[in-house]
Structure formats: structure tokens, C-alpha cells
Amino acid sequence: MSEPEQEQQTRKPRIAVVFGGRSSEHAVSCATAGSVLAALDADRYDVVPVGITRDGRWVLESADPARLAITAQDRLPEVDGSRSTVALARQDDASDLVVHEPGAVPRTLGEVDVVFPLLHGPWGEDGTLQGLLEMSGVRYVGSGVLASAVGMDKHYMKVVLASHGLPVLPYTVITPAGWESDRAACAESVASLGYPVFVKPARGGSSIGISKVHGPDELDAAVEEARRHDPKVLVEVSAEGGREVECGVLQGFGSNPSDTSVVAEISVDPAHEFYDFAAKYLPEEQTRLDVPADLPEGVAARIRELSAQAFEVLSCEGLARVDFFVLPDERVVINEINTMPGFTPSSMFPRMWAATGLDYPALVDRLVQLALHRGTGLR
């Protein structure tokens, strides 16, 4: 047996945890990475933290979870752009991490076995990074290019879900051309939904750029706020009186079916009109997470069934969190699907799985193992 083959058999799998990125969810991604870095078993895996700066540079980051925590809205974590640059380099049917330092010869950290991409939003969660990893022949945690792209774009996500008979809220889309050429027509389309409505960046997350609009006099400002984060805007009916619930999905190994978690409910402090960024991530905010949710057995079963169906319809892999509204008449509608949900201490996804019997370290390990057992390319 050759020396490289012996090394391949004896060394620990190398996991590159990639986080940060160019989207407005940069800080959330950093916080998520801090939690995952703390949970990965250093005795089983060689863990390499890779940060992507806000301008898109890849750097060899610190593995200190405390540095990546969200402590207050005016003190959000950020990737340190002064650190050494790192890149994936394809060599001899494998991809190595290569570190570039000023005035020094590039050095390799060795072959990457799995990338754990913890980026949220565009340029990371939307299929772009997944495409890069596919081209580099590197296995990775989570959904592939198509599912990531569709899951990121709330417009096309609704199109795909509705085309398979899954329930979604009524909506309209405001495109850049439509808003710039005929705002009156856009306003008319929104009015046909009936107020109140929610105005959202079509390809955003973490409730950034979202506004609840109660009447036409508030629409322009809400659209402009959403357009600061995405030129394409989605407007949907407000699920008045609806309960906001979520369910986690994990892909099964091999041909085994996907697993669903218990259903959880979010109850937001009355100071917040909806589940906004502060309610989600700031430690001092009073958001109650009921895990499991107090729901009729049939409603909870319906939510878990729809979660598995949405995961399948979008061709998701690895993991997803599916968000729902339970309307006052107990009808269930899908709000959205997240192909890379947050893993912060306050995040619902790990809490739901803990209540289902899979604790945080075991959850992270299962995702890594799922990635190690699949290939890249068409599948």
C-alpha cells in the first residue's frame, strides 16, 4: 500500500466549516458556525474554520466559538478579513485547502473530505457555493444546487410547492422592471391580496428587510426597504390569527425515508409585530419557543407529513426546516422551507431535534456522516 493510501485510511476526515459570506445574514452565519465548531468532535474530525468576508475573500478563521456569538444588535460577529487567505485547489482527484500568506510560499492544509457550508442567504445558501463545490468534486452538507436555489427564492419555492398541490399563502411578486416602470400596477396587484400583507426580499432570510404593511400608504417604504436587500420583492397575505410553527427534516441514509422532528411553535413578545431579527437572535428578547407545540395530534401529524413532502418535492438533501402557519380554522399552509436553517443556541432546528431524541452533537455528526456517504455530481 502506498504512503498516500495509508495516510488516507488512518487520518481523521477533514471538515471545512465555511461561514460568513456576502449576504446581509453574514452575522447570523458566523453565530451558526460558532455553535457547530463547538459541537464537532475533535477526536473524530480534523476541523478547519474557513470564513468568507463581506467582500467575498476566503480566510483561515479562528475556531473560537465565543468570538462568533451574537451578543447585541450593535455588536454582531464578522469574519476577520486580516487573516491568511485560503482557497480550494483541485489536485489529483482531490481538493486541498491551500493557505496563502504574504511573503511566504503557499502551504496546503491537506485534502478536504466534507465542507459544512453554514452560509445564509445569497452567495452561499442559494446554490452558488454548492455549484462551486460540485465543480471542485468536494462533498458537502445539505442540499444540492437546484434545491438550494429554489429554496432560497421564495417566489419559485411557492411555484414548485403549489404545482405539487402543497398549500401556500396567496402572493404577488414585484420585479425590478415592474417597480421602476409601473408602481401603480404593483400597488394594484398588492391591493388585490387584501391588507395587511408582508413585504419581503424574495431571496433573503433571518427576517431582514421584512415589513408588515397595514395599508397602501405604507407600501412604497416597505418595498424600498426590501429592495435594499434584494431587487426582487415578494408580497404575501398576512396569516392573521395564525400560529407560527416549524418542523425539521433529516434525510435518511441510503434508501431510507427522511425523518421529521416534533413540531414547535414560536410565540413572539407583543413588542414585536412579527418574528423579526431581534426576536430571533438577540438574547434579551422575550420570544417563547414551545417544543413540542401544543397542537391537536392530527394537525401535528399533518405538519410532519407536509414537511416530508416539501423536502421531497424540492429534491432537498441533508436537512431542512419547514415553516408553517396554522390558521384559526386549523388549516395548515407552508410559509417557506430553509435548506440551511440556523444552528445558533436560540435556533429552532436543533431544539426540535433535541426534543425528538437527537441532541446537538449527534445532529451535527449525522449531517457530516450523510455528506461523507454521498458523492458529488448528478445523483
UniProtKB/TrEMBL annotation:
Gene Ontology biological-process annotations: cell wall organization; peptidoglycan biosynthetic process; regulation of cell shape
Cofactors, names only: Mn(2+); Mg(2+)
GO CC, any one term: cytosol
Sorted UniProt keywords: ATP-binding, Cell shape, Cell wall biogenesis/degradation, Cytoplasm, Ligase, Magnesium, Manganese, Metal-binding, Nucleotide-binding, Peptidoglycan synthesis
Catalytic activity: 2 D-alanine + ATP = D-alanyl-D-alanine + ADP + phosphate + H(+)
Superkingdom, natural source: Bacteria
InterPro entries: ATP-grasp, D-Ala_lig_Van_CS, D_ala_D_ala, Dala_Dala_lig_C, Dala_Dala_lig_N
Function of the protein: Cell wall formation.
Protein name per its UniProtKB record: D-alanine--D-alanine ligase
Top-level taxonomy: Bacteria, Bacillati, Actinomycetota, Actinomycetes, Propionibacteriales
